[in-house]
Write a structure and sequence with these properties.
Structural class: alpha/beta
Shape: globular
Helix content: 40-55%
Largest sheet: 5 strands, parallel
Distance between the termini: 26 Å
Oligomer: single chain
Number of helices: 8
CATH architecture: 3-Layer(aba) Sandwich
Strand content: 15-25%
Order of helices and strands: HEHHEHHHEHEHE
Number of domains: 1
């Protein structure tokens, strides 16, 4: 009986959270949406992944990925085209470069593919990151790397071809004074953010 009740509670919680995301997709008029996450929170990412059908139903066609550098877009394209070894190559790239739960991120990317969403790599090539300030830990407000990455992301989002995009990104980047502000400055694009860290 306890297992049944716990299962029911989990289903209701996941359903309520997915409904919150569905409402966000429906209520927002912005073409650019941010899903702010903590990269270690697999549960929230699973709920987000489950909500992608609602995103598509509300006119969404693209999933943006902070975890993939833009010069590695071909890995996502190859994966979508089901080229030989493309899943392995993408998995290995994420394992080495991103180092968070690679299986969970692959699950999200595979879900987007199954819904026929486009995938967009948005991060700055790490080789192009500027030297960071010597202060440690680096406060985000003065991080040269954060500023460079977000400037690159804003330019890329302004030039990308999509009807509506949801970008999964670290929650700090999705704060209005950071990437959303950069996006407005770059091309006057409005955006909306849903913080999935609390899911």
């Amino acid at each position: 009986m306890k297992k049944y009740i716990m299962t029911l509670i989990l289903i209701l919680c996941f359903g309520a959270n997915a409904k919150d995301l569905s409402s966000f997709y429906l209520d927002s008029t912005s073409r650019v949406l941010f899903a702010g996450e903590r990269h270690i929170n697999d549960r929230a990412r699973d709920i987000f992944s489950d909500s992608l059908q609602s995103f598509k139903d509300s006119g969404g066609d693209t999933l943006g990925l902070e975890m993939v550098e833009s010069h590695k877009q071909y890995l996502l394209d190859n994966f979508l085209e089901e080229r030989e070894n493309s899943e392995f190559e993408l998995y290995e790239y994420l394992r080495v470069r991103w180092q968070y739960n690679t299986k969970n991120y692959m699950k999200l990317i595979t879900r987007a593919k199954s819904l026929e969403l486009k995938l967009l790599a948005i991060d700055l090539d790490k080789r192009k990151w500027p030297a960071e300030t010597a202060l440690y830990p680096v406060p985000p407000d003065i991080s040269k790397v954060r500023v460079a990455r977000e400037a690159h992301m804003a330019k890329l989002l302004c030039r990308a071809d999509f009807q509506r995009i949801i970008v999964i990104i670290g929650s700090f980047h999705s704060l209005k004074e950071y990437l959303p502000s950069g996006l407005r400055n770059e091309c006057y694009a409005d955006s909306a953010t849903f913080d999935i860290t609390s899911l």
